[in-house]
Automatic annotation (TrEMBL):
InterPro entries: Beta-barrel_TonB (IPR000531), Beta-barrel_TonB_sf (IPR036942), Plug_dom (IPR012910), Plug_dom_sf (IPR037066), Secretin/TonB_short_N (IPR011662), TonB-dep_rcpt-like (IPR039426), TonB_sidphr_rcpt (IPR010105)
Domain Secretin/TonB short N-terminal: 58-109
Family: Belongs to the TonB-dependent receptor family.
Entry protein name: TonB-dependent siderophore receptor
This protein's record includes keyword Chaperone: no
Keyword Transport annotated: yes
Organism: Gluconacetobacter dulcium
Length: 807
């Protein structure tokens, strides 16, 4: 087996050489200013439009149902984009309109949505509308419903209606309307996803999310976000353009993956339409935050553009003695070197001087009755002046793309990220026999994490007879170095009364229990094939991974080394029937390396996941929206569990099965009404013992979840510009421990939003809007989850009001 460290150097050298070759090839190309060279054979119209988009560098969106069965005479030679579209659409009953400088929408003539325009080269700046609805935003997606193309799932822009996999998305507009402040909050209305499991304990956001009963991995702009224990990357929702949740195992194009799925984040990057936004927000617990999002062209042609996102947040929480504070700056620059080549540089810096807190509370007084009453949701069991989580993260990278030929494209994505975390925490132990006092332990951690992620992709679009192919081949590389120190021990302080806490301060010393330096490398090789023949789409792929890790235990002066390998695959098909109905089926696998070792020092085998999924996607012809139904059978093996023979050691012997169903609906009626609804059911069972238990479900995972949210904006009359919305979220019963002996009650929560575009009726206030949100309107006091009989309260009523100005 080739050593991973050698493969790492080969991948880095290949990536750099490919970039240099792409730049040179781009510089050697010359394209007439007045046009673009097209090479589109006669054939299916959908394929012709896709090739036109690739060859022109434009984004062309079209409803698959409208072009199904239509053919075109093709095009060859140099012409303007408008001339090319006129020839391709001739006799089809379709026309097009320019949405912005590089986005074109194709639609039937009889809808009145398509307006023939002149050449697509646009000079000057387009006006920016200030409303909150997606069609009013310059950076909103141009296509909705199942026609919307997403990168997640295949790494190739693929329409949701052509991907035989369950994918749920949240766009920027939905996050704005719901005032989502974090990734877990943005996922509140998504089926099969349990967010905010830790309630008000928000130190590690990814630990709050479960997909189909498993904790997912996070990817940003197509590259994995590697993490330590406390040096864990967190990206503020304000800096994100969208979030996609890829359901089920998906290691083929991504590598390490949870069997439940992936959460893929997309950063805000430069757009062709100028953006200028300033937002001030206040709310419950003394919240104050200010955000700025500005972007524009840097030259007359628009080939170079920038965007800068900035945020400051300072807020208290529902828990005493706790504060959250954040500083964020995220600049990006896009350079279209020529019509065939582009590169986007991205950077971000985020400082969290107050990054969260530990607040697990005893189950007697939260979940179960305590004769002295119920523990207040504001109760803080830490130690003021000692507890803290300070986190800094910095990243820099780029996304490069070059079109070698009309059918061949190369992409390279790269990111370097640095994180450091300084954590002090006082944690509570068992409740004393008097049911009022808890003993407490002191814990400290210092972590520094440096990571590199690189992904090289080669994409070929071609035909064999009536079959359209998209072949993706790639090599990706991940590297991480983690320096970690931990101290833990009994805190020499008086026991704390959970009903009337009196804090005595920290005294004594806490012994060092860990001091390690870990380096890991992973190289993956993958091939994916997409084929489309008439209404049938098939996707399959295979991947091989090499994983290498070396850990230096500085306390014991001992070095351990382990290497692992894995092969994963997927296959799926979807068929579009009349009336917009598309049944699909898929089978996929995943793997996740284990970093621990057994009592003998042998590495734990990687966890493995397999899933069978079937479903239906439905898109009505005359309504902008879609409905999806998914049924799945998901299994995970080699789950880490306590060694029953050797205390404080682990083995990879557990297994979990998760079966369920998900329903999701998204609809937009005109430019006024937007509706999202979902339902998720998961039947989880431990099939091989985990921590001594078998036959039950994992703690903290509700069997049922449901949600619905709608927003309406008045577009004319005396209330023009006024909008309102609301939603409900239901979280069903879950279990409090592996023995499943206690149930955590379900809860139904209500949210609402009001917003008003002041410029809709008062021209002098153009660009100014106001918004007001309330989450958990009824101020329900509820338990978000319990793990091993330690419980977390959910978030109580939260008011938030904001003013924003766009110009």
């Amino acid at each position: 087996m080739i050593r991973t460290r050698v493969a790492r150097r080969l991948v880095l050298m290949a990536g750099v050489m490919s970039s240099v070759m792409g730049m040179r090839a781009a510089a050697a190309q010359t394209i007439a200013e007045q046009g673009v060279r097209f090479d589109i054979p006669a054939g299916d119209l959908d394929h012709a439009l896709t090739r036109a988009a690739d060859q022109s560098g434009m984004h062309i969106f079209f409803p698959s149902a409208a072009v199904a069965g239509k053919r075109t005479a093709g095009l060859s030679g140099v012409s303007t984009v408008s001339q090319a579209l006129a020839r391709l659409l001739a006799g089809s009953g379709l026309s097009w309109r320019l949405r912005d400088g590089r986005t074109i929408i194709v639609a039937p003539d009889d809808k009145g949505a398509a307006i023939m325009l002149g050449p697509v080269r646009v000079q000057g700046k387009a006006p920016v509308q200030a409303g909150l609805y997606p069609y009013d935003r310059a950076d909103a997606p141009a296509a909705q419903g199942l026609e919307r193309r997403v990168i997640g799932g295949t790494k190739v822009p693929t329409a949701l209606g052509e991907n035989p996999q369950s994918i749920s998305s949240v766009d920027r507009t939905q996050m704005d309307l719901q005032a989502a402040q974090s990734v877990p909050e943005a996922l509140r209305y998504m089926p099969g996803v349990t967010a905010e499991v830790g309630g008000d304990d928000n130190r590690i956001e990814t630990g709050q999310i479960f997909v189909r009963g498993f904790n997912p991995n996070e990817y940003l702009d197509g590259l994995r976000l590697q993490a330590g224990t406390w040096a864990t990357p967190q990206f503020d929702a304000y800096a994100l353009q969208s979030l996609d949740v890829i359901k089920g195992p998906d290691s083929v194009v991504y590598g390490q993956a949870s069997p439940g799925g992936l959460v893929t984040l997309t950063s805000k990057t430069p757009t062709d339409t100028p953006l200028h936004e300033v937002r001030l927000t206040g709310g419950s617990w003394g919240r104050f935050q200010a955000g700025v999002d500005v972007g524009d062209r840097l030259n007359a042609s628009g080939s170079v553009a920038y965007r800068v996102v900035g945020l400051f947040r300072n807020t208290g929480t529902q828990v005493d003695h706790t504060t959250l504070r954040r500083f964020l700056i995220a600049p990006s620059i896009r350079w279209r070197i020529d019509p065939a080549t582009s590169v986007t540089f991205l950077a971000s810096y985020q400082a969290d001087p107050e990054g969260g807190f530990y607040n697990q509370l005893p189950y007697k007084g939260t979940l179960l009755r305590n004769p002295y009453g119920r523990i207040a949701t504001s109760t803080y069991l830490g130690e003021p002046g000692f507890d803290r989580l300070r986190r800094n993260q910095f990243s820099v990278g780029y996304a490069f793309e070059h079109q070698f030929l009309s059918w061949l494209k190369f992409r390279q994505n790269f990111r370097y990220q640095f994180l450091d975390a300084n954590y002090n925490g006082v944690t509570s132990d068992a409740l004393a026999p008097n049911l009022q006092d808890v003993t407490r332990d002191g814990y400290m951690a210092r972590e520094t994490l440096n990571t590199i992620a690189l992904d090289n992709q080669l994409q070929a679009d071609y035909r064999t007879g009536p079959v359209r192919h998209v072949t993706l081949a790639g090599i990706d590389y991940q590297h991480a170095t983690l320096a970690q120190q931990d101290w833990y021990g009994y805190l020499k302080a008086a026991e704390l009364n959970i009903f009337h806490p009196v804090y005595s301060g920290f005294s004594g010393t806490v012994p060092e229990i860990a001091n390690a330096h870990t380096t890991n490398d992973q190289v993956g090789f993958y091939v994916q094939q997409e084929m489309k023949w008439e209404n049938l789409s098939v996707i399959g792929g295979v991947r091989g991974d090499l994983f290498d890790e070396q850990t230096r235990n500085r306390l014991k002066s001992k070095t351990t080394h382990q290497s692992q390998g894995a092969v994963t695959g997927r296959i799926g098909a979807i068929y579009r029937l009349p009336f917009g109905i598309s049944p699909y089926a898929n089978y996929s696998t995943s793997f996740m390396p284990q970093v621990a070792t057994t009592f003998t020092g042998a590495p734990l085998a990687p966890t493995r996941g397999q899933q069978v999924e079937v479903g239906i996607k439905y898109q009505p012809r005359k309504i902008d929206g879609f409905l999806t139904l998914a049924l799945y059978d998901l299994k995970e093996q080699n789950v880490v569990t306590a060694d029953p023979v050797h205390t404080n050691f682990a083995i990879a012997a557990g297994a979990v099965r998760s079966r369920g169903a998900e329903v999701e609906a998204h609809y937009a009626i005109g430019r006024s009404l937007r509706v999202v609804a979902s339902y998720g059911y998961v039947d989880q069972k431990i099939t091989r013992k985990i921590n001594g238990y078998r036959g039950g479900a994992l703690p903290g995972i509700p069997r049922q979840t449901a949600s619905a949210w709608a927003d309406y904006t008045v577009r004319q009359g005396g209330l023009e510009g006024f909008g309102f919305g609301g939603g409900l979220r239901y979280q069903g019963i879950s279990f409090a421990n592996y023995a499943n002996q206690y149930h955590v009650p379900g809860v139904l929560l209500f949210d609402m939003d009001l917003h008003y575009d002041l410029g809709a009726r008062i021209p002098s206030l153009h660009g100014l809007s106001a918004q007001f949100n309330i989450s958990n309107i009824g101020d329900r006091k509820y338990i978000a989850s319990c793990v091993n009989l330690g419980c977390y309260y959910g978030l109580r009523r939260n008011f938030m009001g904001s003013l924003q100005y766009r110009w």
